[in-house]
Design goal:
Helices cover 37% and strands 23% of the residues. The model has no long low-confidence stretch (mean pLDDT 89). α5 packs across α6 (107-114) and α6 packs parallel to α7 (129-138). By secondary structure, it is an alpha/beta fold. The chain folds into 2 domains: 3-67, Winged helix-like DNA-binding domain superfamily/Winged helix DNA-binding domain (Arc Repressor Mutant, subunit A, Orthogonal Bundle), CATH 1.10.10.10; 75-260, Rossmann fold, CATH 3.40.50.1360. It has 10 helices and 15 strands. The protein starts with 7 loop residues before the first helix and ends with a strand.
Length: 262
C-alpha cells in the first residue's frame, strides 16, 4: 500500500495485530507492508509505546501484553510493592554497563531487573524463569544466562543439584540477593533448604554481594540461615528509622554499606 494511502491508525493496528501472533516486529516489517519511511514507522512505535501497548527495542518493538504473560503465581508479588520498587531502583543504580550480575529469585529481584532498561552490555545470571522471560523481551542491552535444574512445582524458578552445579562454573561482578527474614542474632534466613546452598554460591562466586531487604523482614527469623552481615558489601532497605540494621552493621566484623532507599 503506498504511503499516502495509509493512516497512522491503520499502521498501528497492523503492528498490534502482528504482535498478537509474533514476539516482535521490526521497522522493516512495517515498511514492506505500507511503503513508508523508517521515520514514519518510528513515530507509530513511539505513539504505541506512549499508549502502553508496546515496548520499543532496537530496530522495532515487542508487545507489552506478551511480555507480561509470565508472572509470579504467589499473591506476595502485590505485597509491599512501593518499598520493593524503591529498593530495586537503588540496586539498579549499582549496576554498570558491562557488568555480569546475578539476580536472585523472587519479587524484589524481579522488580530490580525491571529497572535495568538503560544498561548496556550486561549479562544476567538467574534461576528465575520470570526474570529471564522479562529480560529477554525487554532488555536489549542484556544477555541472559538461565541456570539449569528442576522447576519447582507451582513456582517459576529452578532449584536442585543441577542449578548449583551450573552456578559453580560461573563468576559475576555483583550478586543481588533477597531473603525471607533478617534477625540481628540469627542472620539472613529463608523458608526452604534448597535456597541456602544456591544463595551461598551466589555470594561465593561474585566480586560484590548486595542484599535487597524490605523493612517488613527486619527482626524476623525464617527456618534456614544462609549468611550473616559480614557476607555482604551493600545492604539496601526502604526504612531503618529505628536503627535496627545500622546497629547490626556496627556489630559486624566486616561492615557493609547501608543504603536506605527513600
Amino acid at each position: 500500500m503506498p504511503s499516502e494511502e495509509s493512516s497512522p491508525a491503520e499502521r498501528q493496528s497492523f503492528i498490534l495485530e502482528w504482535l498478537d501472533s509474533n514476539p516482535s516486529i521490526t521497522v522493516t516489517d512495517v515498511q514492506k507492508r505500507f511503503g513508508v519511511s523508517d521515520v514514519t514507522v518510528r513515530h507509530d512505535l513511539i505513539a504505541l509505546e506512549s499508549a502502553g501497548k508496546v515496548r520499543r527495542v532496537r530496530g522495532g518493538a515487542v508487545s507489552l501484553a506478551r511480555t507480561m504473560l509470565m508472572h509470579y503465581p504467589e499473591e506476595r508479588i502485590n505485597y509491599n510493592v512501593d518499598a520493593k520498587d524503591r529498593i530495586a531502583s537503588a540496586a539498579a543504580r549499582l549496576v554498570e554497563d558491562g557488568d555480569v550480575i546475578i539476580a536472585d529469585i523472587g519479587t524484589t529481584a524481579y522488580q530490580f531487573v525491571r529497572h535495568l532498561g538503560d544498561k548496556k552490555d550486561i549479562t544476567i545470571i538467574t534461576g528465575d524463569l520470570s526474570i529471564a522471560h522479562f529480560a529477554s523481551f525487554n532488555l536489549p542491552g542484556a544477555e541472559v544466562m538461565l541456570l539449569g535444574g528442576k522447576v519447582r512445582k507451582e513456582h517459576l524458578y529452578l532449584a536442585g543439584a543441577m542449578t548449583l552445579d551450573a552456578m559453580s562454573k560461573l563468576y559475576a561482578d555483583k550478586a543481588f540477593l533477597s531473603c525471607d527474614g533478617f534477625h540481628q542474632d540469627h542472620g539472613f534466613t529463608v523458608e526452604h533448604d534448597f535456597s541456602v546452598t544456591i544463595k551461598q554460591a551466589y555470594i561465593a562466586n561474585s566480586r560484590q554481594s548486595i542484599m535487597m531487604l524490605d523493612s517488613s523482614k527486619l527482626g524476623r527469623t525464617s527456618f534456614y540461615r544462609f549468611s550473616t552481615m559480614e557476607d555482604f558489601d551493600v545492604i539496601i532497605t526502604d526504612n531503618d528509622s529505628d536503627g535496627y540494621l545500622a546497629k547490626s552493621i556496627e556489630r559486624a566484623k566486616h561492615s557493609p554499606q547501608l543504603l536506605v532507599a527513600c
